[in-house]
Structures are given as C-alpha cells and as structure tokens.
Design brief:
It is built from two helices and five strands; from the N terminus they run E-E-H-E-H-E-E. The protein has 106 residues and is an alpha+beta fold. It has a five-stranded mixed β-sheet with strand order 1-2-3-5-4, with helices on one face. The radius of gyration is 14 Å and the shape is globular.
C-alpha cells in the first residue's frame, strides 16, 4: 500500500530559517499508484507527526520538486508551510525543476 521514512534532519547547504534546529525530515513517502487518493498518505503522515512529537522534534521538514504537483497539494492539505524555493536545487539532475522546502510545525 505505502510507506513513510522519517529521520533526523542534517544540514545540506541549502539553508532555511530553521535549518539544523530540531527538525525531523520526511525522507520518503510513497503510495502504490492504485491506492493513491484513498487517505493512506494522510494516515502515514499523521503517524509520522506523532512519532516526531514523541521524540520532541519542533517540526517536520519535507522536500519535493516543483514538478511533483500531487505532493505539492498533499503538503498544502496536511497544513505544511512552504518556506523556501531553491530555483537551482536540482540543476545537476533536473535543471528545469526547483526544490521546494516545506515545514509542518509540531
């Protein structure tokens, strides 16, 4: 069906207002194509929020590309705040896509 991977944030050289300040980061969230738009992503995200709260993190950080519109809308739906856009964040891999950094405050 799907899964989420969350861990401790590590500074990556692309600074945001809260970089390195008690963040957990969603490294990956994936849902099987046939199960998307069923609420599984929201359930996984909420479990991730509770996990991060239990460990006393201040916020969850998410990163996505500007080309990933489903993830953009997912972040908005979950109540995440778009805090940074790095126009050249993927220039060596996807030069026409920007990196979007989101925070969910716990």
């Amino acid at each position: 069906m799907g899964g989420i991977a969350i861990g401790a944030d590590a500074p990556d050289g692309l600074t945001t207002p809260f970089e390195g300040k008690n963040n957990a980061v969603v490294w990956d969230i994936r849902i099987v194509q046939t199960m998307r738009r069923t609420g599984i992503g929201t359930i996984l995200f909420r479990h991730g929020v509770e996990w991060a709260r239990t460990l006393k993190y201040a916020r969850l950080k998410l990163e996505t590309t500007s080309a990933n519109l489903p993830m953009f809308y997912f972040c908005v739906k979950q109540g995440c705040e778009l805090v940074a856009i790095h126009k050249y964040g993927y220039e060596t891999v996807e030069p026409h896509e920007a990196m979007l950094i989101w925070y969910y405050t716990l």
